[in-house]
Amino acid sequence: MGQVAGIRLDGVDHYVWWGASERSTDGVFVDEDARVVSFPSADACAAWADGLGLPTFSDDESVDDRVDDTADYPSLLDCDALRPWLDRKTTALDPTLALDVLNMSIDFAESLGRTWSPAGADRDHSVYEKLFGASVPWSFGLESYVPTWSVHELGVLRDALTRAVGLLRLGLGTA
pTM score, two decimals? Predict the structure, then answer.
């Protein structure tokens, strides 16, 4: 069960099949050489998946609300939008984008059979929890949440996102 997922990286859009994998409930499709299968367009990826008979989330009535099955394809995960923050050219960071990039990198690692966690120096997972709280505040019983970051936490987050983008590059064969 899966869907097309778009990733913009270094000015290039890549489309992958995201969903359940052999290794985990969330992952991307990899070929027999353990490389992420990607396409230059969402339509090409969808046609490939259809040709293989891969079921989509929208085919299953029991699917939870993890995906918006009213959209043709999910929005593009724009890793390039993180570049100014990673390069310290801005202090503005979209916490939902940051969380999505970390989560997609975890899915890539699982699919590629790699052991990787964005936690790094975030031993108590407070950085991840702050991103999660800012992105999905209702899961903590809040209407909204704007994290306050320490210098240490910003360093941990910058390191985790840099490594996450590197792992996505590796998986997409652009490293």
Answer: 0.86
